[in-house]
């Protein structure tokens, strides 16, 4: 045992844990990240100096190329592309794990040291790794709108997926008993790659937060399995930190969408149900114009903004902040209520609003805002729909019944900014729009907000 | 099978669970990019694969696999930490009068 290496790795592990601990508050988060960065540097430099490395040219080339690409992506990628970037990085991490696994298989197989235990670890590593690579690339394609974002479903989809999964697990079990079978091994990797594609195919945009969290978790598990395969403890620790982080996020996201956890684990999320109840039997809606909106806002003491994916699409976050500034100038309290699954990844709205210079203490969680909703004078809903649909609370027949929502309907006045009366992702009618205290303000969110801000600035 | 590795896995998973539970939802996106950067620790495994000459005949393949793995993992480590920092810099508290 190499005591020097073990010592370096344990320090790194502690620094990683401290780094994640920092994320419990925006004020400590950056210091935490510095800890984690030092931890990473120690682990890498420690490994390089451990005396195990014989050839350097490949390593140096890889690090130079990887740093350049990574830095370029980090500097030039706009914040609005963050969901894509996160999805893509899961694919890179998993790819590294798969390749290390294949290499280990070749090496140890060649030396005749491939026993059942080692094969088990390598098997997990390449299984999770491979399906994360293609699954994340699919998610990336969908988020980047290179692939149709809507769910792609076909008859017998579940049967195909389950059979594919069963065959893959079967091959894995076979390999544990008869480890050095290259054909079986590569077939298993190929099938895992297919599984990754197939489980993301039927998933639509609004379910992306769950998928991204799940891929985060799988990428971590692949890294942890790598640790088992090459007998490296820091990989196990960092991998399981990542794994449990993705796992917790998946739980939070699935709870926020009212899906069972089993549903999430097997990735079978996202078949949109088409609602058959017809609320649209010509109940009247109230339309509002810019001036009406301004008038109502001026009378308010407390205003809550509820942003959704529509705000991100319209890139309206900066204009929202301008409006919030105008209101605050008039002594009106402005807060933002953020549903856990608003947007395309966990925390999506928070990042966009932070980019637009909204103070983080104005960003409130659903649980924090709901109990006081009846004291809110005006609630502005921007590009959100299903997460504010009161049918989730009242209509037992609704497909989203039971899903936790932001209770905007309890505010004295609700202003809904929307492009049209179209239904949200789940295709469900929203009774909120027909409530007497709801005012509909139609148009592109950014344009409407801009007009509103201009109106306020006139005074 | 090395039982102490399983021991470490369970403990680390438990610590992770306890710590991540306390992460504020506002920082969930930075959390994902940070854990991503941290799981780029597979770089350590990739380094060994790329830098250790294989059992003879296969060393070319080892080097190639290792090279691609090092590149992919470095993208995650460098890019992941940089973008996390960039995001965290944006989370500011405004000073307001009263």
Task: List the keywords.
heterodimer, A: about 450 residues, alpha/beta, six-stranded parallel β-sheet, 17 helices, B: about 100 residues, mainly alpha, about 0% strand
Report on this model:
The complex is a heterodimer of chains A (459) and B (98). Chain A is an alpha/beta fold. Chain A has 17 helices and six strands. In chain A, helix 4 runs parallel beside helix 8 and helix 6 packs antiparallel against helix 7. The longest helix of chain A has 30 residues, at 82-111. The radius of gyration of chain A is 25 Å and the shape is elongated. The N and C termini of chain A lie far apart (75 Å). With 98 residues, chain B is mainly alpha-helical. Chain B has a domain at 26-91. Chain B has four helices and no strands. Chain B has helices at residues 3-21, 28-39, 42-51, 59-90. In chain B, helix 2 (28-39) runs antiparallel to helix 4 (59-90) and helix 3 runs antiparallel to helix 4. Chain B is flat and about 65 Å long. The N and C termini of chain B lie far apart (62 Å). Chains A and B meet through helix 1, helix 2, helix 3, helix 4 and helix 8 of A and helix 1, helix 2, helix 3 and helix 4 of B.
């Amino acid at each position: 045992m190499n005591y020097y290496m073990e010592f370096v790795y344990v320090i790194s592990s502690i620094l990683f844990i401290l780094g994640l601990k920092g994320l419990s508050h925006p004020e400590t988060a950056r210091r935490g990240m510095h800890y984690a960065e030092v931890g990473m540097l120690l682990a890498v430099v420690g490994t390089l100096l451990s005396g195990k490395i014989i050839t350097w040219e490949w390593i140096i080339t890889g690090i130079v190329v990887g740093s350049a690409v990574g830095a370029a992506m980090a500097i030039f990628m706009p914040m609005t592309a963050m969901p894509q970037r996160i999805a893509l990085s899961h694919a890179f991490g998993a790819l590294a794990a798969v390749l290390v696994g294949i290499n280990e298989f070749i090496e140890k197989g060649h030396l005749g040291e491939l026993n059942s235990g080692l094969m088990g670890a390598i098997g997990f590593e390449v299984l999770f790794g491979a399906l994360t690579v293609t699954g994340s690339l699919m998610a990336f394609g969908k988020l980047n709108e290179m692939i149709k974002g809507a769910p792609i479903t076909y008859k017998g989809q579940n049967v195909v997926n389950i059979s594919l999964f069963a065959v893959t697990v079967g091959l894995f079990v076979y390999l544990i008993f008869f480890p050095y079978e290259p054909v079986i091994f590569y077939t298993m990797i190929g099938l895992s790659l297919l599984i990754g594609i197939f489980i993301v195919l039927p998933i639509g945009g609004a379910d992306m937060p769950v998928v991204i969290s799940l891929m985060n978790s799988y990428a971590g598990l692949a890294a942890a399995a790598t640790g088992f395969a090459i007998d490296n403890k820091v990989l196990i620790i960092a991998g399981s930190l990542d794994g449990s982080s993705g796992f917790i996020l998946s739980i939070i996201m699935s709870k926020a969408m009212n899906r069972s956890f089993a549903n999430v684990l097997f990735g079978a999320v996202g078949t949109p149900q088409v609602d058959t109840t017809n609320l649209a039997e010509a109940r009247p809606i109230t339309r509002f114009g810019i001036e009406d909106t301004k008038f109502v806002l001026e009378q308010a003491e407390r205003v809550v903004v509820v942003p959704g994916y529509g705000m991100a699409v319209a890139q309206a976050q900066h204009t929202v902040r301008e409006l919030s500034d105008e209101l605050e100038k008039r002594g009106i309290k402005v807060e933002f209520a953020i549903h856990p699954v608003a947007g395309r990844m966990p925390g999506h709205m928070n990042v966009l609003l932070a980019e637009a210079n909204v103070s983080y203490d104005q960003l409130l969680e659903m649980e924090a805002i709901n109990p006081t909703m009846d004291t809110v004078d005006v609630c502005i809903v921007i590009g959100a729909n299903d997460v504010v649909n009161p049918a989730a609370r009242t209509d037992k027949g609704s497909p989203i019944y039971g899903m936790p929502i932001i209770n905007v309907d309890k505010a004295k006045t609700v202003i809904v900014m929307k492009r049209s009366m179209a239904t949200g992702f789940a295709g469900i009618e929203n009774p909120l729009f027909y409530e007497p205290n709801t005012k509909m303000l139609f148009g592109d969110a950014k344009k409407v907000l801009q007009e509103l801000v201009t109106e306020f600035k006139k005074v | 099978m090395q039982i102490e590795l399983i021991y470490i896995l369970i403990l680390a998973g438990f610590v992770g669970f306890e710590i991540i539970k306390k992460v504020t939802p506002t920082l969930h996106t930075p959390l994902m990019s940070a854990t991503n950067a941290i799981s780029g620790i597979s770089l350590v495994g990739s380094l060994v694969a790329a830098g250790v000459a294989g059992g003879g005949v296969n060393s070319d393949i080892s080097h190639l696999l290792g090279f691609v793995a090092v590149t992919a993992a470095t993208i995650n480590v460098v890019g992941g930490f940089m973008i996390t920092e960039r995001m965290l810099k944006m989370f500011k508290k405004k000073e307001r009068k009263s």
